[in-house]
Amino acid sequence: MKFALVDGRRQEAQPNLSAKCPACDQPMVAKCGKVRISHWAHKRTLFCDHWWENETGWHRDWKGQFPDDWQEFVYRAENGEKHIADVRTDHGWVIEFQHSSIGPEERRSRDIFYRKLVWVVDGTRRKTDGTQFRKALEASTSVGASPYRRVRTDECRLLREWSSSPAPIFFDFGKGPTLWWLLARRPDEPAYVAPFSRSDFIAIHHGKGPEGARDFDEFARTIDEVVAPYNAHLRSQALARTPVQPTGPQQYLARRRGPRRL
Known about the structure:
Blueprint: E1 3-6, E2 9-12, E3 18-20, E4 27-31, E5 39-42, H1 57-63, E6 71-76, E7 82-88, E8 94-98, H2 104-113, E9 117-122, H3 127-138, E10 141-142, E11 149-151, H4 157-162, E12 169-172, E13 178-182, E14 191-197, H5 198-206, H6 214-236, H7 249-257
Parallel strand pairs: 8-9, 9-12
Antiparallel strand pairs: 1-2, 3-4, 4-5, 6-7, 7-8, 10-11, 11-14, 12-13, 13-14
């Protein structure tokens, strides 16, 4: 963990400090070696949140894009269940940065527990994922003039693992400017992906877009409307006669920004 409570205040790990876990109130010890990232660990061999995973530099880099008080937010449900969210924004979105492997049951549990959840998935963890994803893109089908691509999931493990989640999912394949957005879908429908600006993703959740984080709320609410007409044409086998051109995320942002001033 990056933060623990030292005399009741959130603080990062430093040598010789004692602290308590903000979720379970158990003693924590500071781990500040030269090899691993400085972090807090439970003093006893227990952990209060079985969803938590050991942090990597990738986690820290992503979490560091957001204010400290958004990070490691202790999310409590009405039934008393609680988990530590990687980031919770002022607009109530929980952003989970997933590096390690996660089973479908746990993923579904998180999708249900966090009512407004966004996944950012490390696409560099396995060496083959980037190659498989690029091949899926090369074999994909464009959706009119939009940036959306209809992709097959059978030969891309990353797409196969995540395509059934109802939450917005973004694959991060490195430090480039683009994330790949995997659109939520129904089990009987194709999978779609679209490029999404890394800087726009961060700015929207910071409330720095033209409508702030409300833009992302709108993306999530209307996602079915984006590809539904295209899926209807696929089912009726009439796509070739009446192509559909849904609006992509970047065009949407451009419209909201308006014309650039010279």
